[in-house]
Amino acid sequence: MIISTSPANPSKTKLDALIVVTTVFELKSSPWRKLNSSLSQLCEKANPFHDFSGKENSVLVLPTLGQITPPLLALVGIGKSSDPASHQRSLAKAIRQLQKSSRRGIQSLGIAFAGKPLSADAIAHAVDEATYQFRKFSPASDEVRRPLSKIILFSQTPSRDSLARASHVARAVRYARDLANQPPNYFTPAVLAREAQRLAKQRRLQLQVWDERRLKRDGFGGILAVGQGSANPPRFVRLDHRGGRPGQAPLVVIGKAITFDTGGISIKPSDRMDEMKFDKCGGIAVLGIMDAVAALRLPINVTGLIASAENMPGGRAYRPGDLIPTLSGKFVEVLNTDAEGRIVLADALTYAQRLKPRAMVDMATLTGACIVCFGHECAALLSNNDSLTEGLRAASTRTGEKVWPLPLWTEYQEKVKSDVAFVKNTAGREGGTITAACFLNAFVDAKFPWAHLDIAGMAWTSKEEPHRAKGATAFGVRLVTDWLANQ
Ligand code: BES
Ligand code: MN
Ligand code: ZN
Fold first, then answer.
1. Which atom of ligand 1 is nearest to the CA of 268?
2. What integer best gives the mean pLDDT of the chain?
3. Residue 389 — pLDDT band, cuts 50, 70, 90?
4. How far apart are alpha carbons 197 and 348 in whole angstroms?
5. What pLDDT was estimated at residue 103?
6. pLDDT for the residue numbered 181
7. Rg over CA atoms, the chain
8. Which of 45, 145, 349, 389 has the most crowded CB, counting CB atoms within 10 A?
């Protein structure tokens, strides 16, 4: 996909379709008139029949019948919204509607702005949202349609530089979505580790992989326990991007990658259990972030850590009642084998702190309770450090990947205490997202700034939406890459 800018007249450019993004729809308003007279004439004629308002998330697709060169026109309203997530959704929805309206498909697309142009990141991401399809295992349903390959922005901004940066991040997002959408029979912890190896080679990252033997030797008891019920053994992966000066404390990103979560002996109901292939999305986001960070050549040291296992019931599976020795030396009392993510992350967090990190951020599809709390609109953010929280919230505002804070008060911390071990792996249903984070917090030394993102409600979508296909979203890749780029 090539996105370029052009000073030409959009209504006289040969394109399969033209999109005009507008805040309010007023034919007589100056930015609109200035944009183009043939365009505004066209809209003037069409509008009495369609009543396009220009308000947030409104889209109108029109055949242009020779009035302007592009045969299809879409008006996209963004209203008064300053939320990039809303801009992206509206633009993506318009692109999808255009594709449905065109028999041959849209290969070349122009985008003009009757007002302030959208950011490079918003445009690149909207185009991806609209066009992404996971197609590794099924033939394209509409193969006759040729894919969107050329986009021309009729505006001075964004700059070439910011478009290039946005396209690196967009590619990393597509990469993460492709991996996260892989089925669990093909994508095991070993396959994930091999993928990390491929990425490391391509992007010149340092790589270390812990297989089962090495996990045993080094004492990763949490990851081993969760993985022991599966025929597909667990892995721990470390990737290093050395963009900063040698010795500079690294920023560490950590991900939960359960390639399939049956719940183990505390088995889940079978309804929609297939979606638990997405329980690897935190770890996959780490791969996407490392890809983006390396492609952007960020001048910092970044370490990515992925704790990967398959959570299966079986003759060797771990059980409720087990006491698990973790990498920290502390024991975990297992009360529910379905609360496995926090156990593998405990080992990863312990390892991370040996690197004396400047900050560490973990991402995990950790609790169903997070969906009860926030639905599918934001991730939960829990942190032991206010300035880290602020940094992530700022990145969230810029990218539109929404996060919202929850507390880690001692009242909650008390609830994960165990009578027989250091902590227990569940404190029941109430406040489940917070107590899960408190479990993690028990393994974190307060001198290291740490944030936990529970992405359970954001990592994938179960239903087709107007602006995107169902499946993995790669939530967190843009957010955390943006945060890293601002360190
Ligand atoms: N991976 C799940 C959380 C999850 C469930 C994410 C549904 C997205 C959708 C996690 O491993 C889990 O099973 N958590 C349990 C914890 C409970 C046993 C304390 C949960 O949320 O039910
Ligand atoms: Mn689980
Ligand atoms: Zn899980």
1. 13
2. 94
3. very high
4. 19
5. 87
6. 98
7. 24
8. 349
Residue given tokens 């406040």 in the structure block? 431
CA of 456 to the centre of ligand 2 (A): 11
Q: How far is the CA of 310 from the centre of ligand 2 (A)?
A: 10
Which residue has its alpha carbon closest to ligand 1 atom 3?
367
Task: Determine the pLDDT at residue 3.
Answer: 94
Q: Residue type for 305, please?
A: L
Question: Which pLDDT tens digit goes with each residue over 236-281?
Answer: 999 999 999 999 999 999 999 999 999 999 999 999 999 999 999 9
State pLDDT tens for residues 136-165. Answer: 888 765 555 678 999 999 998 899 999 999
Residues in Cβ contact with 481 at an 8 Å cutoff, skipping those fewer than 6 apart = 169, 172, 288, 289, 292, 293, 296
- By most ligand atoms within 8 Å of CB, the mutation choice from 338, 344, 415, 438 for ligand 1 is 338
Question: Ligand 1: which residues within 6 Å by Cβ?
Answer: 261, 279, 336, 338-341, 365-369, 371, 426, 432, 456
361 CA distance to ligand 2 centroid (A)? 20
Instruction: Give the 3-state secondary structure percentages of the chain, helix then strand then coil, rounded to 5.
Output: 40, 20, 40
Query: Which ligand is nearest to the Cα of residue 368, counting in written order?
Result: 1
Residue with tokens 């095991």: 188
Residue 368 CA: nearest ligand 1 atom is 21
Question: Where do we find the tokens 């340092």?
Answer: 206
Neighbours of 320 (CB within 10 A): 15
Q: Which residues are catalytic?
A: 268, 342
Ligand 1 probe mutation, 311, 318, 367, most atoms within 8 A of CB? 367
Other Cβ atoms less than 10 A from the Cβ of 470: the count is 13
Place of tokens 């992989």: 209
Ligand 3 centroid–CA 62 distance in Å is: 46
Banded pLDDT at 363 (limits 50, 70, 90): very high
Q: Which atom of ligand 1 is nearest to the CA of 429?
A: 19
Taking residues 108-125, report their average pLDDT. 93
CA 201 to centroid of ligand 3, rounded, Å: 29
pLDDT at 33: 60
- With vertex at residue 448, the alpha carbon angle to CA 443 and CA 450, rounded to the nearest 5 degrees, is 70
Q: Express each pLDDT in 179-224 by its tens digit.
A: 999 999 999 999 999 999 999 999 999 999 999 999 999 999 999 9
Mean pLDDT within 7-18 = 92
**Mean pLDDT, range 106-130, rounded to an integer:** 93
Domains of the chain in sequence order? 2-156 (3.40.220.10), 169-485 (3.40.630.10)
Q: Which residues surround ligand 2, an ion (CB under 5 A)?
A: 261, 338, 340
Mean pLDDT value of segment 470-478? 98
Q: How far, in Å, CA of 263 to CA of 255, rounded?
A: 18
